[in-house]
Design goal:
Blueprint lengths: L6 H21 L19 H6 L11 E6 L8 E2 L6 E2 L1 H12 L3 E6 L5 H6 L5 E2 L7 H4 L2 E8 L1 E7 L17 E3 L5 H15 L6 E3 L4 H9 L5 E5 H11 L2 E8 L7 E7 L5 H14 L1 H8 L21
Parallel strand pairs: 1-4, 1-5, 8-9, 8-10
Antiparallel strand pairs: 2-3, 6-12, 7-10, 7-11
Helix pairs in contact: 1-7, 3-10
């Protein structure tokens, strides 16, 4: 079932505007979105990682690590209150990597579809922008993993739903998700399995903006929202009214990893992986995760070019 462009959706937008205005005022201090970022963790030069950078590697700028980020998914990445400075988890991790490699940091804001060209052209040295490792992408790029790819089920705080962990848990529910995404594929496959086993079907709902999704959930028009866990966690922390009842790998039934992306064969992936593992060991990595409330997506060890999601 698709909701969008209807009279009901227009009414939800009016309610959403009021809800957002209240929520932002009530809880704006939850995350630091200032351009100054006084609480951003900093690191120290990592001699092992620096030595591992190939002598012939050509950085985009001298003495600088240039990182491409698409600032469109808080708390992973977004624009600060000046509407210019990129902030969020990805920007913090970029700073730690620049510190580890003994370089200044330059962040280049990209539209997400443009990251492959920016990397291949040498405009940026690496991309940190929620890129999932896939076998198709590994043919052109190298990867250093830093986060688990998770999607999450969120319900209204007062909901009777305690847990959604497997297909049978969504039987008969009204679930909001995003068209053309991994989470939609997962939800539709779960629904197919449920129907095949004689369970009630899922009523899938689609809305065209996050505010309308939130109001649909709060108004009782939907039972749950199934989307990118980090984004929903951020919304729950800032606005309240929702809670997490389950997470699933974005590559279900396989595990999916998010990784720093570099040019294929450039030699930068191994130094980045070394730096990430040292940051994991010394606690800097955890500080950045906790700062943006992404601790549930932590990894124990970074890997260079692990198995990716298969070609489809």
């Amino acid at each position: 079932m698709i909701f969008g462009g209807t009279f009901f959706t227009r009414l939800l937008r009016v309610a959403a505007a009021a809800l957002i205005g209240f929520g932002a005022t009530a809880s704006a201090a939850t995350f630091d979105l200032s351009p100054q970022q006084p609480g951003r963790p900093r690191g120290a030069p990592d001699s092992d990682a620096i030595r591992a950078v190939p002598a012939g590697f050509r950085f985009a700028e001298a003495d600088t690590l240039t990182i491409g980020i698409a600032p469109n998914s808080p708390p992973i990445s977004t624009y600060a209150t000046d509407a210019r400075t990129v902030v969020g988890f990805d920007a913090d991790l970029a700073q730690l990597l620049a510190d580890s490699l003994g370089r200044k940091l330059k962040i280049v804001a990209l539209a997400w579809p443009d990251w492959p060209l920016a990397l291949e052209s040498g405009k940026v040295d690496a991309v940190i922008s929620n890129v999932t490792v896939t076998e198709e992408r590994k043919a052109k790029f190298d990867f250093s993993t830093y986060r688990r790819d998770q999607v999450g089920f969120y319900v209204k705080s007062g909901s009777r739903i305690a847990s959604i962990r497997e297909p049978k848990d969504v039987a008969g529910l009204r679930v909001i998700t995003d068209a053309g995404t991994n989470q939609e594929k997962i939800l539709l496959e779960w629904d197919r399995q449920n129907v095949a086993h004689g369970l009630r079907p899922v009523t899938v709902q689609y809305y065209d903006d996050d505010a309308v999704k939130a109001v649909a959930l709060q108004s009782g028009r939907a039972d749950a929202i199934f989307s990118v866990n980090s984004v929903l966690a951020y919304q729950a922390a800032r606005q309240g009214g929702t809670r997490l009842v389950g997470t699933v790998s974005g590559g279900w039934p396989r595990t999916a990893d998010i990784a720093v992306t570099t040019r294929k064969g450039s030699g930068l992936a191994d130094p980045v992986t070394l730096a990430l593992n040292d940051l994991i060991r010394d606690g800097g990595y955890r500080k950045v995760l906790d700062r943006w409330q992404l601790g549930s997506e932590a990894i124990d060890r970074s890997q260079t070019n692990p198995p990716g999601l298969p070609k489809t």
